[in-house]
Amino acid sequence: MVISPYLTVVILGWIAAQGLKYVFAVIKTKNIGNFRQLYTSGNMPSSHSACVVGLATIVGLLHGVDSALFGIAFLLAAIVMYDAVMVRRSSGEQGLAIQELIKLGKAKIVLPRSAKGHTPVEVLVGALLGGLIGIVVFVATQ
């Protein structure tokens, strides 16, 4: 059974980005037990960006950048990366501010989780990683 190059790119993009998040966290904290980085959102690099850019890359290479399918994949990638930097990052910063306000007020409530978005650099590195994986998978399938 041969797995689809489209799914291969997405799966490898996710695994590579999440694995790199763990590596960067270990380097930064000098703690090898930070396994949460293997599945959490936010931080370097963006796994969402790696997946959607990898998908757009393989679609562009297999079907051409003038195909409707590439246009759809490109739009999906643009929306996901915009959302990571502008929407999710903003809501994460607001969540952190709310947590701080709750702490200042010494309220007896459980602190809400604050979802993290991405900095532009985290998205760029994820996109570059995804593009590279897309090219590698394309070459490997030819």
Description of the structure:
- It contains four helices and no strands.
- It starts with a helix and ends with a helix.
- Helix 1 packs across helix 4, helix 2 (47-63) packs antiparallel against helix 3 (68-104) and helix 2 packs parallel to helix 4 (120-141).
- With 142 residues, it is mainly alpha-helical.
- It has one domain (5-141).
List keywords for this structure.
142 residues; mainly alpha; 4 helices; 71% helix; elongated
Number of strands: 0
Q: What count of domains describes the coordinates?
A: 1
**N to C succession of SSEs:** HHHH
| Range of helix content | over 70%
Global morphology: elongated
Average pLDDT over all residues: 85
Task: Provide a short characterization of the protein structure.
With 142 residues, this protein is mostly helical. The protein has helices at 5-29, 47-63, 68-104, 120-141. It is elongated, with a radius of gyration of 18 Å.
Topology:
Elements: H1 5-29, H2 47-63, H3 68-104, H4 120-141
Helix pairs in contact: 1-2, 1-4, 2-3, 2-4
